[in-house]
Amino acid sequence: MPYPVENALFQWREGERRVRDTDEPARFQLERAADAVLEELRRRLGSSFSVEELADFYAGGTDWADEIAQRWASGTDTTWVVDSAFHRYAREATNYAGGRAREEIKRPDSGPATAGDRPARRS
Questions:
Q1: DSSP state for residue 17 in the 8-state scheme
Q2: Among 118, 114, 110, residue whose Cα is nearest residue 94
Q3: Domain count of the chain?
Q4: CA 20 to CA 85: how far, in whole Å?
Q5: Helices (H), the chain
Q6: Which one, of 66, 90, 63, lies nearest residue 7 by Cα?
Q7: Is residue 121 part of a domain?
Q8: Residue range 55-70, pLDDT digits in tens
Q9: Structural contact between residues 95 and 5, judged by C-beta atoms closer than 8 angstroms
Q10: Quick count: other Cβ atoms within 10 Å of Cβ 120?
């Protein structure tokens, strides 16, 4: 069963907000930990993925990410760090559109297209 994308995006945004709102010097550690998790996400998933694939990967478990985050920011709530890293990586998804998954629209004559595809404006 696919993990609900809207739920995942909400959690990831909340993690990003909590990391961003943390006072220095703790924030620096959390940012470094999120970057380390982000790099591992890139290694595991590659550069071409959808938000849905990322949400399903997240639902499969993040113990590996918690371990990485704990190495970089020991003694902190690693959930925020992991969610922040997933939020940052989601922005690189093929169907990410400003905070939500972009829906696909099927065109009868040209196959699948994305909601971002629009006909040219006429003058």
A1: H
A2: 114
A3: 1
A4: 12
A5: 5-20, 26-45, 51-59, 63-72, 78-90
A6: 90
A7: no
A8: 999 999 999 999 999 9
A9: no
A10: 5
Spatial distance between the Cα atoms of 80 and 19, rounded to a whole number of angstroms: 7
Residue 106 included in any domain: no
Tell me the sheet residues that pair with 101.
Answer: 96
Residue 25 lies in a domain: yes
CB 82 within 8 A of CB 65: yes
Residue 119 in domain:
no
**Lookup: tokens for 89:** 């990586």
- Flag the least confident range among 40-44, 62-66, 72-76: 72-76
CA distance 123 to 23: 52
Domain extent at residue 85: 5-101
Give this prediction's pTM: 0.76
